[in-house]
Amino acid sequence: MKLYPWQQKQWQHLLQRRRSGQLAHAFLFYGLEGLGKLDFARAFAEFMFCVAPVGDHPCGQCRSCRLLQAGNHPDLLLLQPEEKSKVIKIDQVRSLSSDFNQTAQQGGYKIAIIAPAEAMNLAAANALLKTLEEPTEDTMLILVSTKPQSLPATIRSRCQILAFLPPDKAVARQWLLEQSIDRAVYEGNVDILLGLTGDAPLKALDLAGNTNLLLVQQNWMVDLFKLLNSEIDPIVLASQYKETDLILFCTYLLNLIGDLLKIRSALSQYCVILSNENSLKVARSLAERISTDKLFTFFDKVLNLEKHLLLGINLNKQLVLEDLFIAWVRLL
Ligand SMILES: [Zn+2]
Predict the structure, then answer these.
(1) Burial of 40 (0-12, 13-18, 19+ CB in 10 A)
(2) So what's the ipTM on this one?
(3) Residue 110 belongs to what H/E stretch?
(4) Model confidence pLDDT, tens digit, residues 200-246
(5) For residue 17, how far is its CA from the centre of ligand 1 (angstroms)?
């Protein structure tokens, strides 16, 4: 069972509900990507199925636990977009509903996890609504979502909602350092990784496995300074960023501006991205030349763009980047 140190509050909440017989038929687990919500949902299913829980945890030994660990518990249904598709289709939801109408094979609960729930198209969501409105005894539906706002309100309102927040930096840092990957690669970069992922530890771990990342963000820094020195044209640079992960780039920019603001307030020891002496030196001279007002305006611009991207709104990448780079140049 995978339960992360930052999920204790949510875990205890569900256990408490179960003890008092107040478990809902449907849950919505939501929060940033990279917080382990799906693992949490599976862990809770394991706990619900386990025939001999030990304290607050499934035993890990009984038939149910074994079946779940092997990924083939007959009473756990996992609905995800089918291969090569980004959408959860109505047929998948219908087959789930008919499954829910049959008795559990192991004689207990039937649990379905839908992840990511926002991948359901409208028809699928409407079909699910029927199941939500007329829940079958001993069934539980868990929707896992990073974008709960894009789910129909009629669905959200029928779920018990559980929010997952990023852990404290210290907890996230500690957990990351405990993971068995090459520490040397990223030990000095844990804060950067967390900064780039909004403190989502699993996403940070994912990025840590991508050794290119640190190189990529060093290049971003170089390019941004080239822009300020008029060594490269914003439109040309935008065309070179076609493959860039825009959400990641926005997070990077937000951290960078945050760092520049910290430097202006003589708080450079708290910088996330500008953490080595070299980059700090360059950044200091830059920070002195840009007004706080302008930094905040640019910050809002990036934040707004990130919000649109997270909502999945389709944007013209070239135009967005041109606009961003031109605004960056105008900071000076
Ligand atoms: Zn068990």
Answers:
(1) buried
(2) 0.99
(3) strand 110-114
(4) 999 888 877 766 677 788 889 889 999 998 999 999 999 999 988 89
(5) 20
Phi, psi of 77 (to 5 degrees): -110, 130
The predicted-structure confidence for 239-266, as pLDDT tens digits, reads as follows: 999 988 898 899 889 989 999 999 988 8
Whether the bond between 53 and the residue before it is cis, its omega within 30 degrees of 0, is no
Taking the chain, what is the end-to-end CA distance rounded to the nearest angstrom?
A: 52
Mean pLDDT of 141-153: 94
- Rounded to the nearest angstrom, the distance between the alpha carbon of 46 and the centre of ligand 1 is 7
Cβ-based neighbours of 16, under 8 Å, separated by 6 or more: none
Give me ligand 1 centre to Cα 4, in Å.
19
DSSP letter for each residue of 208-237 = HH-THHHHHHHHHHHHHHHHHTTSS-HHHH
Distance 16 CA to ligand 1 centre (A): 19
Find the 43 Cα to ligand 1 centroid distance in Å. Answer: 11
Which residue type sits at 235? I
> Which run of H or E residues covers position 326?
helix 317-329
Q: How far, in whole angstroms, is CA 210 from its chain's centroid?
A: 17
At 176 the three-state DSSP class reads helix
Strand order in the sheet with 76-79: 76-79, 110-114, 139-145, 26-31, 160-164
Count of CB atoms situated within 10 Å of the CB of 167: 20
Quote the ligand 1 centre to 63 CA distance (angstroms): 7
